[in-house]
Each structure stands twice: as C-alpha cells, then as structure tokens.
Write a structure and sequence with these properties.
With about 170 residues, the protein is of the alpha+beta class. It is built from 3 helices and 3 strands.
Length: about 170
C-alpha cells in the first residue's frame, strides 16, 4: 500500500478574514492543519494558516485556477477596506494640518501686531482642528457606501468559485 503524499500551503492573512480563508481553501480541497497567531505588536492582526491537500486530488489544475481567482478576490476585498480607511485618514490629516498652519499664522500675525487677522486665523485654525475628525468619519462613511456593493459582489463571486470547486472535488 502506497503512503499518501500531500501538498502544503502556508498563508498569512488578516485576522478578520480567517474564516473566509479557511472556508475558501477547504472548498478547494485543502484541510486546515494549524493556526498560528502572531505574538509581536506589529503583526498582532495577522494569522498564519497551514493547510494540506492530497497530491493525487482529481481536477487539481482546475481547482488551482479557481483558488487563484479566490485569492485575487480576497486581496481585492482587503485592499478596498484598507483604502477606505487610508483616504479618510488622509482627508482628516490634511484638514488638521491646514488648521495647524492657520494657528501658526495667527501667532505670526499676533507678533506683527495684526490683532484682527490674528483672531481670524485662530478661529479658522480651531475650526480646522474641530472638523478634521467629523471629516474623517464622513469620508469613511462615503467610501464604505461606495465600496460596500463592490465588496458584496466580490463575496458573491467567491461563493460562485467555491460552488464550482465543490463540483470538481470527489465525494467523500
């Protein structure tokens, strides 16, 4: 009797996507063999998943092709979520920086004895600081509303890929 051989796959993913990756890879014939949670403070949001799959699995080429499409869709979803936060933070930082520049200008105006200009710049600078966080929330909400249907579509495409993969797997 010949001993069964396996292919092995190790991936590192964001913690919030672990169930998606486990479910997805199992749909392509992989079996989860281990989960490693990162202990250091820089990668604490990352998890390493270890899988194995029989080397003699039928339709391996087609399954691998579907799996690559799955991986690409998951990366797209992750990228959309990251850009949502990045763009919103960029808006808030720019508004906050403009507020800071206006406050510095008010100090300069005060030193140059320009009282009215100094007060106006202080008010504008403080307004810049005060609206930076609401601007962040608003920009994030708009980007979420824009990306939400796209992310939903990607998850539907992933489900379709998994259904196609299940049809290629042998019945157990």
């Amino acid at each position: 009797m010949e001993e069964e051989q396996y292919d092995y796959k190790t991936i590192t993913v964001e913690r919030k996507y672990v169930p998606n990756y486990i479910d997805g890879y199992e749909g392509f014939g992989w079996k989860l063999k281990g989960i490693s949670y990162h202990k250091n403070r820089f990668d604490s949001a990352k998890v390493t998943l270890k899988f194995e799959r029989s080397i003699q699995i039928p339709n391996k080429l087609e399954l691998s092709e579907l799996q690559h499409k799955f991986e690409f869709k998951m990366k797209e979803i992750s990228h959309m979520n990251k850009t949502r936060n990045f763009l919103a933070a960029a808006v808030a930082y720019v508004i906050g920086a403009i507020g800071t520049v206006l406050l510095l200008g008010s100090i300069l105006a005060f030193v140059l004895s320009l009282g009215v200009a100094s007060v106006a710049l202080v008010v504008l600078g403080l307004i810049g600081w005060l609206i930076s966080y609401p601007s962040y929330r608003n920009a994030r909400k708009r980007k979420m509303a824009e990306n939400s249907p796209l992310i939903t579509r990607r998850f539907k495409e992933i489900n379709r890929l998994k259904k196609n993969a299940v049809q290629l797997l042998p019945l157990v």
